[in-house]
Amino acid sequence: MIENTDRQNAQLALILLVPAASIGVAMSLFIAPGTVGTIVSVLCGIWLLGLPIAWAVLRDRHQLHLSLPKYQELLVGIVLGLLMFGIILGTYWFLGQDWIDAADAKSKVQQMGLSNPMIFLIVQAYFVLINSLIEEFIWRWFVYKKCEIIIPGKAAIFLSALFFTLHHIIVLAAYTDWHGVILGSLAVFAAGAIWSWCYLIYRSLWASYISHAIADLALGIIAWQTLFS
Predict the structure, then answer these.
(1) How many domains would you assign to the chain?
(2) Which of 26, 189, 203, 211 has the largest CB neighbor count within 10 A?
């Protein structure tokens, strides 16, 4: 049975964590692009990773550990990832190319110091292999579990997906027009719900991490084509 104290603690954790993602993105892309925005974005990133670890260890008394993936988790992750990969690239090639202002995107990338193709590839490799895992740890392992405490049952899937979508709306607004913002936000929400469902089923991050990494690879391909083709 979940007590009111547990719900209050879960609400506090989400209040402290969720806005940091939007603050970091807004600062780096809109409010103070350049050095100041990058510093704030990095600090927010450290907070987003550090708070769940500190909260789990010091408040919840959980031991962090890495479990080996099961065959079904690997299969589900690959299948979901390939489906997302195809949908993302298909949507971009058939609909989304006109929704992105390439000149504006290149300008924002230059402000962040990513206009060099080699640096861009290194950053994209980080996002595909490492950042996708960090996001799964934050938004599924921590945020989804806190949402379960506040709203028991499958409704927590949609609440956590909403929280996951908020900062992505700001990112989409920076690089696409309103068509891209709406469709992209719905896609991010759907992906967040699917990944939360994966965590609900397997209580492991492997399926969501693998599919998330493959989806991010598709986004990296789009970014490369937009910036360097």
Answers:
(1) 1
(2) 211
